[in-house]
Write a structure and sequence with these properties.
Blueprint lengths: L1 E8 L6 H12 L3 E8 L8 H7 L2 E3 L5 H14 L1 H17 L1 H20 L5 E5 L3 H13 L3 E5 L3 H4 L6 H7 L2 E4 L2 H9 L9 E3 L6 H4 L11 E5 L8 H12 L6 E5 L5 H10 L6 E5 L3 H9 L3 E4 L8 H8 L4 E4 L13 E4 L4 H13 L2 H18 L2 H15 L1
Parallel strand pairs: 1-2, 1-4, 2-3, 4-5, 5-6, 6-7, 8-9, 8-11, 9-10, 11-12, 12-13
């Protein structure tokens, strides 16, 4: 069986879970072609991601000439299919001209992908945004079935503009990464299409699930592994650190990641005199993330909107308890047995949870860590998920 994977930008620092999924499929005997719509970063910190870059074909870098030639070629070779596919673009223009122009660009990209396919049995896209839109058009042009994985929250922020209902209707299957995600897909799709919505969890890399020596000292460091953005609640976290610093000064917070708010956050940290308490690493490789999680007392992620973050799974797999917000699919994995769950947007609750983690005895922390690891090994093993996904995709063809 040969599957094509389509992602907006792949490989990427934040898309290591897609790499794990692809490699697990290949381990299960599936041939996978990689396609990225947009160019990927060439300075990826993880060697495994850099290796994926060598195996990935990028659509837009083919050049306007190649994309237009593929479009004209399909128009001549398959005029019936081409004009049936064009109806989606025309409907988008009727709804909103700007959305119609986007769909027209998607059609050109889809034509090149359709012409590039050799022996592909199935097309799978990650994210219900533009990758699913392009995959839908490729499927209509080629009659190759497609499916897509929805992570959230982007798909659920604008389901109408994304035509989520139409994408679900035309797909062979749709994957959600949590029960919450499945419920939202059901909310925005026709009830007749609900049986095709499956839950396929994200998997955790063996780097995080392999056995580790028991910790003898949990230290007093908290970490947050996330994109430096408002959506992840990082400004709120800085506010919480400032409040906690009024009560105690025996802790440190390490922000692991980068993003659009880095300069603003650095200015805020300096302005509040928190340089001794808060540091930012920037993007780092998976092995460094693992080392930081292993040296942290707890991992904090005060997000406002999520799907089900893989970093929570990675932390728990390493027996590091987590402090998280009660949103989306997060409570499906985390409760008081393996961490602290707080209301989103509450500085006081976040401060209390961070202080509780810092004041928690080592035996209680270790017990929370063991529970978290057991859950991740049971629910998010990449090899098993890859084998299950291979069977599901084979049933689609």
């Amino acid at each position: 069986m040969k599957i094509a994977y389509l992602v907006n930008r792949y490989p990427a620092v934040s898309h290591s879970f897609i790499r794990r999924e692809i490699l697990a499929l290949e381990a299960a005997g599936v041939t996978v072609d990689r396609y990225s719509i947009r160019p990927f970063d060439t300075d990826l910190p993880d060697p495994a991601d850099r290796a994926e870059g060598d195996r990935t074909r990028v659509v837009v870098t083919q050049g306007a000439g190649a994309l237009l030639a593929a479009t004209c070629g399909l128009l001549v070779a398959r005029p019936g299919r081409f004009f049936r596919t064009l109806r989606i673009v025309m409907r988008a223009f009727a709804d909103e001209p700007r959305r119609g122009w986007r769909q027209l660009f998607y059609l050109v990209e889809a034509c090149w992908i359709a012409r590039a396919f050799v022996g592909v049995d199935h097309l799978h896209a990650h994210f219900g945004t533009n990758p699913a839109a392009v995959a839908r058009l490729v499927s209509m042009l080629t009659d190759i079935p497609y499916s897509f994985t929805v992570h959230g929250p982007d798909e659920f922020d604008a389901p109408g503009a994304l035509d989520l209902r139409g994408k679900v209707a035309d797909a062979r299957y749709v994957m959600a990464i949590s029960s919450y995600g499945r419920s939202q897909l059901m909310r925005w799709s026709d009830p007749r299409d609900w049986p095709k919505i499956q839950i396929v969890p994200c998997g955790v890399d063996r780097l995080f699930t392999q056995a580790n020596a028991p910790r003898t000292d949990h230290g007093m460091t908290l970490c947050c592994v996330a994109r430096l953005s408002a959506q992840k609640g990082i400004p709120l976290l800085i506010d919480a650190v400032a409040e906690l610093a009024r009560r105690r000064s025996d802790f440190r917070l390490v922000l692991v990641g980068d993003g659009e708010m880095r300069a603003e956050l650095e200015a805020t940290i300096a302005g509040r005199g928190l340089q001794e308490l808060v540091s930012i690493t920037g993007f780092v490789g998976a092995s460094t993330v693992r080392d930081i999680l292993l040296s942290s007392r707890a991992m904090v992620l005060p997000s406002f909107a999520e799907g089900l973050p893989v970093v929570i799974m990675e932390a728990l797999a390493l027996e590091t308890p987590v402090i998280v917000t009660a949103i989306a699919g997060v409570p499906e994995l985390v409760d008081q047995a393996c961490g602290w769950v707080v209301p989103a947007g509450s500085i006081s609750a976040l401060v209390d949870a961070m202080e509780a983690a810092l004041g928690c005895d080592d035996d209680t922390l270790a017990a929370k860590g063991r529970v978290g690891r057991e859950r991740v090994l049971e629910r998010h093993d990449s090899t098993r998920i890859g084998a299950d996904l291979a069977l599901l995709l084979q049933n689609m063809t």
